[in-house]
Design a protein that fits this description.
Layout lengths: L30 H6 L3 E6 L8 E6 L2 E7 L5 E5 L13 E3 L2 E3 L6 E2 L5 E3 L15 E2 L1 E4 L2 E5 L19 E10 L3 H7 L6 H4 L15 E6 L3 E7 L5 E7 L3 E5 L14 E10 L2 E10 L4 H19 L3 H10 L12 H11 L17 H19 L20
Helix pairs in contact: 5-6
Bound molecules: FE2/S2 (inorganic) cluster and fe (ii) ion.
Amino acid sequence: MTLLDSDVRGRTQPSSSRYGVDLHTTRAGTPGGAFMRQFWIAVHDGDQLPAGRAKPIRIMGENYAIFRGQSGEAQVIDYRCPHRGAQMHLGWVEGDEIRCVYHGWKFEKGGQCTEQPAEQEGFHRKVRIGTYPTREHMGLVFAYFGEGEPPAFPPFPEPKAEGVIEIRRAVNVPCNYLQCFENSMDEVHVAFTHAPGGSHAKIAVDLPIITADETDWGMMRYGKRKTGDIRHTIHYAPNMVRVLVPPLAGMDGVGGWPEIILIFTPVDDENCIWFATSKVFVTGDQVKEYNDKRVEFARKFAEAPPIGQVVQDIWSGKLVYDDVRHPALARVQDIAVQAGQGRIADRDNEYLGRSDAGIIVWRKILARELLAFAEGRPTKKWKTPPDDVVPVMGA
Ligand code: FES
Ligand SMILES: [Fe+2]
């Protein structure tokens, strides 16, 4: 997807005055950068990184290379070769090592240089490339960019019920990650943003009353319906949401309501990637039916115009929001609205209301933590989420 420019209203200037600190930034050396670097960060769809392949990635404003060795393990390393700065993703993967294409220096997964074909014997022992702990969970590759030992892995538990793990293809979104994470706390938007149709149209009928509580590992949010039913949604620090969602519009209900974990990874301050993995509760014969439907969905998706183009056409006025039809309509709607807030949402000129309760609680947590980092005070010791706290549909 190409990057889009949503700043049609000129809302480009972030400001930190209301919170005393820039909540949105994750750049290295900032309080937000220190906060984010305490956690495992999703960096790639696992199935899009075959063994023997290296790729460039950009995370929190920094470039890196990621490669998958022949034994199947993924590894994030520095973007540039320590010799004279060539890009490492151009390199050849040899076994579980990677060789720079410029002068053939080779590095093992742990970063040690193991070969320098044109240098004196022994020099290689003095040279290392930076590496970052890299692990996989539910089909996604995570890396740790902080100092010292990473926190426990995985960063969230796999849903226990029997089913199939399915990755939803990652999508580049042209805005800061925080407004997307905030949207995940904003259940009321469903009644409007998703009303014109698509997978969420059926649940776009109610205006739940939202409450939220801080937990040891993030935030729990509740949406109380008129019927008294309460939907429970889990927000794992620093950028993940786990929720039960309706089947995609193009799936005709096959597979029921999966549990989806949606992760908003900062690319830099003005772009993010939505990673998503899910557990679909199908077993036995249903698996084939589900997979067939997925293949059909993938075909329709491939034939449809790219999401980025549709969003651009909505922004420019070429397409009428209500008239848009797309196999992944809910995603189109969400990106049009969230990235349409501007590259970095203006948090100083807003009117937060009752329905923004989840956002208010999270910003309070974030501002408290970021100010603690800024002032050198102790910060929260985040815990690994327990596997018995699960989302509840409350339909
Ligand atoms: S720049 Fe990589 S080997 Fe020379
Ligand atoms: Fe949405």
